[in-house]
Structures are given as C-alpha cells and as structure tokens.
Amino acid sequence: SQVSFANPLSSTHKFLQACSACFLRKAPGTYAFVHKPDLVHKCKQDVLLCKRKGDLQSEWAKVRPLPQMPSFNGPFVLCKDMMRTGNSSQCKFGENCTFAYNQLEIDVWTMERTGKLDRNLLFETTATKLDPVNRITCLLQEYQGVFCKDDQTICSEARHPFDANRCLAFEAKGLGVSKVRLFNFLCRLDLCAQSSHLHSQREDGCNYAHSVIELRIWMVQHHTGISQDDIVKVSTKYYNKHEPTLNRDEGSGGARYGLSVNLKMEFACAQCWQAGLKSFPDRALKYCCGRARHPWTKDRSVLLVTSLERKKPVQIRPLPHAKHVPNHYEICIQVLKNKKCNYPGNCTFAHSPEEREMWMYMKNNDYNMDQMYDMWLSQSAHSRQ
Asked: How far apart are the first and last CA of the chain?
C-alpha cells in the first residue's frame, strides 16, 4: 500500500522555499519582507514561507524553525513586543524568540510539535520521503545531535550487560539525552499529554510518544521501516563525516559534546586580565608571558572564549552551583537591558551568549573548571614540550 505523507494544512495554507537573498527585509530592523521570485541566484531554500490560501491581499510570511522547548506543552502565543511595534529589533530575543512572530508560525509550529507536519517533507518527492537515510540525516541536521548506544559518559549505573538493556538514545546539542523507545504497531503517532509535565505513569507501557524526537523517529520508522540499529549506523556515519565538533572519548563507545566551531577556548593570567591585558603561560607553565611575569597556577587563570561573531574574548565564570540544575541557562535580564549585572552575589544567569554556551557544554559533559583547564592544556602546545 502507498504510504501517505499528508500535509494537514494543505487546504488552508500555501508553502514556498526561499533564502535570505530572495526574501529581503523592506527596511533594517523591521519584520516586513519582500519576496523576489524572479531573482537569478542559487537559492539555498533554507527559509520557509507561508501564506493563507484565498487571501489575495496577504504576502508571504517567514516561518522560523520550531523552538526546542522540551518542557513546554502549552499553546504557542504571539510575541508581545512584535505585536506592539511590528519591529523585530524591539524584541530582545530577536530570531531566537520562542514566541511566534505571526499567526502562521503558530499554525505551523503547532502541527510540527505534534508530528503532524514535517517541513523537510513539504517539497520532497515520494522517493526521497521513503529514503530512511535521508530522513534520519535531516533529523540530525535539524536537532544538531547524534544517535548513540553503549555510552559510559551517559549511563550512571555500574557496568552491566549491554544487549539485555540497550535502548536508542538521542543526544541533542544543548538539550541533553532523550530515550527513543521501540516502535511497534501499537504505537500512536502523537505526543503523550502527560509526558511534558508529569511523565507518563505507564512509562514504557504508554503507546504515545514522550518527546518530539521520539515522535519524529517513530514516524520515520512507520514510513520507511528502518530499524534502531540502522538508525545508529546512519548517525555514526554522518557523525564521523560531518560533525568534527562532537569529540569521541578514547576508550568509550560514546560521544561527548564538543564546542561550537565558532568558539575558541583559552586560559589566561587572571591578574593580567584584571588589568585589561591578555597573557598566557610560558612553555614551562611557571610564569605568565606578560611584563609582570606573574606566577602561573591553575587557580590564578581565567577561562576566555572568543566567538567569530564578536572576535573579542569574554571571561567565562565557573558553572554556578544550584540545588536544581536547569535544563537551559538563560542570559541575565540586567545584562540584556543595561549591559551590566548589578546583582551583589554570584549571578546564576549567563552574562553573554558565549558563557551560556560554555555552561551548557560543561553541564552536558559534567565538566568543572579544573577539567576544562586540563582539557585545554592537553590540547595546547604545553603538553608537547
């Protein structure tokens, strides 16, 4: 029988692919765009456009990717800043805002979150939709993660027989690890209503998906018949070829998150840094290379990270101690508004995008600042004297 790839919005919405070259802002800072379909260029087709059918006055609207919020199960709502001003620059989160910028985003996001719509399949041929390798690869690219098994860096239990206990796990960048249960004919291709805030009381006995990624995988398996073992093989091949920033630990079958290719990590002298200077240790690791020649020790150094966007080093504080570790670290509101935090104690909110990403990296890999220093040292020239 022919597999159905129904688009639940096909009767009410039209979709189109575009890119930043042919879908331009009408003016800087505004969220009004103009589409140039006749522009001669090689379209990247990485922007999804949408408009309602039958509305002759409507223009194509941009639909941003579905926000990754694993603990949120409520209805999507419009961004108040966007509604008030119509200007995306007035929203402090910009393109990363998890509130919708238009009603079309709400329509599409709602269907995507429940697994009823896959934007990657809107413009694909049936043959491509039935290609399991293509489908799994799209998920890896979308979620920036890897399917893995037998990972000692994830499993907190003592060593135990693997085959009798194995399961499929998806490790997504910045979102932790999600279990993907076995798909069978009893599974319902819909999200469990309890999973986001109560956890399903039936656990493995529940036939509904407990996460968006589990639902997406079940749909791929339903359409293509790919097994969990083959999913891991596809993921491993893709990971080895395209993800050099996901670094495997030697001697383990798992993977740890690597830093973004946009970030450069280094440790510098804390005393020099306080004076507005940046200096590194000498080859003997006894003194810094600054004019003051401060004694070099691990506890007298600071972690600096430089991003390609800002090209200016930013100091990273140690991972904050908290009784309940958050799933995500957020940027301090005072820093966003005033570019300075006036909190008298140790602020547990990140003071820069770089610090937020580093904290997520440290949390996901269970690293403290000493371990970050040791890792940097092992990768630097000082380990090859």
From this structure: 66
Residue 34 above 80 pLDDT?
yes
The one-letter amino acid at 229: D
CA distance 149 to 142: 20
pLDDT in tens, 113-165: 877 788 877 877 666 667 888 888 887 777 666 766 555 544 545 666 666 66
User: Comparing C-alpha atoms, which of 23, 100, 97 is closest to residue 60?
Assistant: 23
- 212-224 vs 132-143: helix crossing angle, rounded to 10: 170
Q: 15 Cβ partners below 8 Å, 6+ apart?
A: 48, 49, 50, 119, 122, 123
Q: Are 329 and 359 in contact (CB under 8 A)?
A: yes
Going from the C-alpha of 369 to that of each of 288, 308, 314, 317, the distances in angstroms are 19, 23, 15, 9
pLDDT in tens, 321-332: 876 777 778 889
8 A C-beta contact, residue 258 and residue 246: yes
Q: What is the pLDDT of residues 203-216, one digit of tens each?
A: 677 888 887 778 88
Q: Mean of the pLDDT values across residues 90-105? A: 83
Query: What does the radius of gyration of the chain's CA atoms come to, in whole angstroms?
Result: 24
Contacts (Cβ under 8 Å, ≥6 apart) of 297: none
> Which pTM does this prediction carry?
0.51
Q: Are 153 and 253 in contact (CB under 8 A)?
A: no
In contact, 191 and 97? CB cutoff 8 Å: no
What are the C-alpha distances in Å from 87 to residues 21, 32, 331? Answer: 20, 8, 22
